[in-house]
Structures are given as C-alpha cells and as structure tokens.
Specification:
Layout: H1 8-19, E1 24-28, H2 35-47, E2 60-63, H3 74-85, E3 96-100, H4 108-119, E4 125-131, H5 139-142, E5 146-149, H6 155-164, H7 169-179, H8 183-191, H9 198-208, H10 212-216, H11 219-223, H12 226-243, H13 249-270, H14 275-285
Parallel strand pairs: 1-4, 1-5, 2-3, 3-4
Length: 286
C-alpha cells in the first residue's frame, strides 16, 4: 500500500484498519478512484501475501460483474457461500479474503443473501466491498461493515506520484484535467491502456464542446446505455471539480452548472429515474 497515492486521512484510516481488521470493509469512491487496486493490496497486506499474490491464492476470491456495468446476481453470492464453506489450514489470524468489486451492482436478492454472511462471518475471513456511493448497498450491509471513503487528492500529490513513475509533468497535467483527478483513470490515460471510464471521458469532452441541439440528438443513444450514462455523470462532476479550482467569472459559473447538472443526473439515474427525461435535462443544462 506504500506505493499507492492516497489522501492522508484515507491512508490513516486504512492503517488503523490493517492494525486491527474487522470482518468486513466498505471502500467508497467514484469509478476511477483506484478502489480495485487498493482493495487487492489491502487483502494482500492483511493475509500477509506478496504484491500481486491475491490473484491465484487458493483462499482468495474476487467477485465482479461479468460485463462492465451489469448486475451481480445471486449466483455470485452462492459461489461465495461455497467458498466460505471450505476449511482453511491457516496459521495466521486472517487466512482468507474476498473482494466484491462494484458491490453497488449486487441485485437486491444477492445483497440479502450476502447480509447473512456478514451477520455470521467465518473466523479469519476478510470481506472487502467496493462501492461508488454510500447508498449503493442496503443500510443493513453498511451497518455490518467498516466504511472508508477514498478522499480526493491534491494535484501536487498526483503530479509527484506520476513523475516518480517516469511521466512528464505536461502529460500528467493533461491527464489530470481530462480525468478529473481520478488516479485510476489518470494511470490508464498515461499508460495508454484500457479503463472502463475512457469511453465516458471521451463522451464528456465531446458533449462539452457541442451545442444544446447536438447534445439532444444523443439522448436516445445514451439512454440505451445506462452504465455509460452513469459513468458520464461521474466524469462531468470530476471535471467540474478540477476546473473550479482555477476558474473565475463566467467560466466558474459554467463549471458550477456542469457540476450541479452532473450530480442531479447521477442521483436521478441511480434512483432509477427515466433515462430519457433525466438525460434530456442534463443536455439542456450543460
């Protein structure tokens, strides 16, 4: 975990958790904030595994959507139940770990089944759930897990981190502006590798350069891709946060409107609002 760039408060909370792990942890942060890498490294630290040792370890399990943005059904939780029923010949206090990625995509049935495991967790087992927002899982699940929110990093900290990896400052600043300061997405942009948010980022940049009429012509297309629409609202918010650090006058008012529109659309889509209506309002507000 020492190699990850983290907000000081987030790092402090995680170090306290590692010193005395509970049976379950919620990592809360937007897509692109690095939750996946952080969750795996936390599990490796608690299980005393080498870097990269989580994948392939016989007593570790990663549960994630089969397709990006798709729901995680009851079958995955049944797989988890079978995994937890196995006996572990462990010699440490924690000898088994589970990471459930994008747990906010668990169906209601799957969440209720998971709840039973969190109420009576097997001894020595750590369950880490990553979620995009606190309301992404049932209150009963939240009440049975320790929660840590991934704090927003200052630009200077991110520049230092990526410069140590050999990237040029100009490229880092460009990736910061495009990504809205999300470390996971910044890394993908700098490495020119794939990331689930790349498409949403390109979409957001395109929308912000178009007229209201041009944006409205995209509503039908986007309404059919709800996961992309949700990622888009998140990226718009992140971009606005970054821009507002230096914007003033009319530019600041514009980015405040983008931030508000992105937040309201994201909340409405997360609450199963009518996609076309929500997206039409978003396009008119940008």
């Amino acid at each position: 975990m020492k190699d990850l760039t983290l907000h000081p408060l987030t790092r402090q909370q995680l170090e306290v958790f590692i010193a005395a792990p509970s049976h379950a942890l919620l990592l809360i942060g937007p897509t692109g904030s690095g939750k996946h890498t952080l969750a795996l490294q936390l599990a490796e630290t608690v299980l005393q595994l080498p870097d990269g040792g989580f994948i392939g370890h016989p007593y570790s399990l990663l549960i994630a959507p089969e397709t990006e943005g798709k729901a995680i059904g009851i079958e995955a939780v049944r797989e988890l139940e079978q995994f937890l029923a196995l006996k572990v010949p462990g010699k440490t206090e924690h000898d088994r770990a589970v990471v459930i990625e994008n747990a906010h995509l668990l169906t209601l049935e799957a969440q209720n089944a998971l709840l039973k495991m969190l109420e009576e967790p097997p001894t020595g087992t750590l369950i880490i759930l990553t979620i995009n927002h606190e309301q992404g899982v049932l209150p009963t699940i939240r009440s049975r897990a320790q929660a840590v929110s991934i704090g927003r990093l200052e630009p200077a900290a991110l520049i230092v981190h990526f410069k140590k990896q050999g990237f040029e400052e100009q490229a880092i600043e460009r990736a910061y502006a495009i990504s809205g300061g999300l470390p996971g997405l910044m890394d993908a942009l700098l490495q020119e590798s794939e990331h689930p948010l790349i498409q949403a980022t390109d979409y957001a940049r395109r929308l912000l350069s178009q007229s209201a009429y041009e944006r409205l012509t995209l509503v039908d297309e986007l309404a059919k891709q709800r996961p992309l629409a949700l990622d888009l609202t998140s990226i718009l918010q992140q971009m606005a946060h970054v821009a507002l650090q230096t914007a003033s006058g009319p530019a600041a008012k514009k980015w405040q409107a983008v931030l508000r529109a992105g937040y309201e659309a994201g909340e409405a889509l997360s609450g199963n609002g009518q996609s076309k209506l929500v997206l039409t309002r978003l396009m008119l507000s940008l």
